[in-house]
Amino acid sequence: MAATDIKIGESWKAPLAAEFTSPYMAELKSFLLEQKQEGRRIFPKGAEYFRALDLTPLDEVRVVILGQDPYHGEGQAHGLCFSVQPGVRTPPSLVNIYKEMQSDLGIAPARHGFLEHWARQGVLLLNSVLTVEMGRAASHQGRGWERFTDAVIRAVNEQEKPVVFILWGSYAQKKAAFVDKSRHLVLRSPHPSPLSAHNGFFGTRPFSKANEFLEKHGRTPIDWQLPATVE
User: 10-217: which CATH topology?
Assistant: First the structure.
């Protein structure tokens, strides 16, 4: 698996070239092929494994939001963390994200959960693990994706322009613990899941804080308001 064969933003290819040609990536590719040959359904579809990197080029990243695994329900995952495809019910964590955004910025919750509008503006919506078997949460953890996405975060961390890292929950905070806080803004809070959102997620104002930081450093703020409808 070579970076030149993968649909990702051109600026990612050189920094990630060694990952795509490494033994662990070859093993991961073999694992995924075996899973498919056994008739297991893998989400998202193959063309969308690297969708986050395709929509958000490395040199345009302004905000990073870290997730853990793709959604494992029918028709949900499409390669962006917390986002679901048009027509799919908004998941509970994203409902809480919308609630916080309304409290923070006065933006009414969207009637959909499709977040490509953010990704196209430089919000890297990155899951730690990029695939999952249908109906089996966390089924592809420990297969190599974590190493790959660590390399993605390192590549962003090494960028000269300052970036905002929004780390919801202990998993994301541990994964990105090495980020250089002297150059980048790291916003940490509990996860927006219904299980933890009331333990300190609400009231953290990550969206306005991210934009304040970007503007302070001469970068364009994010338009967090999602389109009213999506196709």
Answer: Uracil-DNA Glycosylase, subunit E (3.40.470)
